[in-house]
Amino acid sequence: MKKKSSRLVNQDSKEVLERKVELLKLIREREKFNQLEEYDPYPFQERFIDTTSTASQSVLCAGNRVGKTRVGAFLVAASLTGNYPPWYTGRRFNEPITAWCGGVSTETVRDIVQAELLGTPGDSQALGTGMIPKHCIIETQRKPGVPNATAMALIKHVSGGTSYVYFKAFNMGNEVWMGRSCDLIWLDEEPPREIYTQAVTRTLDRRGTVFMTYTPESGMSETTAQFFNDLRPGQSLTHGSWDDASEKVKTVVKGKPGHLTESVMEQILAAYPPHEREMRKYGRPTIGSGLVFPVPEEKLLVDPFSIPEEYQRIGGIDFGWDHPTAVVWIAYDADEDIVYVYDTYRQSKATPAVHATAINTRPRWISYAWPHDGNRRDSMGNPGLADQYRGHGVNLLPEHFTNPPAMGEKKGGNSIEVGIMDMLQRMESGRFKVFSTQSDWLEELRMFHRKDGKIVPIRDDLMAATRYATMSLRFASPEGESMWKGDLKYPALGIV
Questions:
Q1: What domains appear along the chain, each with residue ranges and CATH number?
Q2: Closest CA to 361 of 401, 307, 315, 308
Q3: Which of 151, 186, 347, 354 is the most buried (most CB within 10 A)?
């Protein structure tokens, strides 16, 4: 009797186990073909999704391997189907839509964008393993001349209607991006400016949405610079770095740890050349090998602190009109030989009187290095800019800027490269720091680059002022001990 009972128990256990295995298969099958429902964003991805609720143009500028393409695919899939999860706070489309999805080339669109949305190209069994659920894919149409590439797909919307998604490439030309209006455009990688403009135009009459997900490999391009430096109403910029997808970060819904471990991040970083690592890891725009100061920003940044009295101080001025007049204030820890950029000022199309007023809100005893063009008089013989600033009480050094004299020399030259090299060596050795609040200075740092070996003189005004100040540390002085008191005579201004 006991043996029979034992056999029955074993049989029941076997049946239960088989049911569990079958149930597990069904769960895995559902997960496989319903990635949309399973999507679990990181906090930075959720923030990006949220921006689409108010912005008509949203950018996610992120490092490699953090999940920027996946969140883009999620937004498209949710909008095409109308299947929005409970936690979703982005733009909602309650009716079927027309969407365009684009990338650099037809091949990259197929292998990345199409794959993320529909599943592995060329594998009929994989259709529906992308972000668009299998049961929502009504039909797909092939793109002629490109193996396994899809031109468009018809997608079932929860309202009962049909959404359309078209796949386009930047290298197909501007004409491909003209024509009909649409509700949503996703650009995975940074597009040429003219294609971005066309995308915005195509969505205007429908009050649609354009969003871009990319790593800024082209540096501070026109489009990237506009979002980083001149964000306009209706636009948003979200950042994403390896830190935002690391194992120390938890997902929003299920609280799972991030997919990037320390060892993986180290391995990936080692594969990139040094000048690309900042961009690859943090999604910060650089100019690749042309970057003048290829030093990670985190190596430069410090939290603001009260400047000790014993630190020496000096300022640098770069005069301008159309391009800004720029001023940088530096504190110098002579004991440790460390320079700190702690304050900046930048304004265009203003008179010396306006600039002087701003400068004089800082301690009046600080001396300022200035370039040689400050001595230049106009055709009427009026005083140069240096004398005008002195007349407004700015404590300029008596002579225009020069680099420190070489050994055995009485005067230094004006070589830009000498100053650049000195600053770079300081940055690399940890002897050059910047207060983390100085966003204008950091903006210029990212744009400061070379072309054909020459420094490009665009948006470099604070960089120039910094060089003047850094290379004039021999004139820096501690609080209240300026060697230049503004007591020199300037007959041209009536000061005697």
A1: 35-286 (3.40.50.300), 299-493 (3.30.420.280)
A2: 315
A3: 186
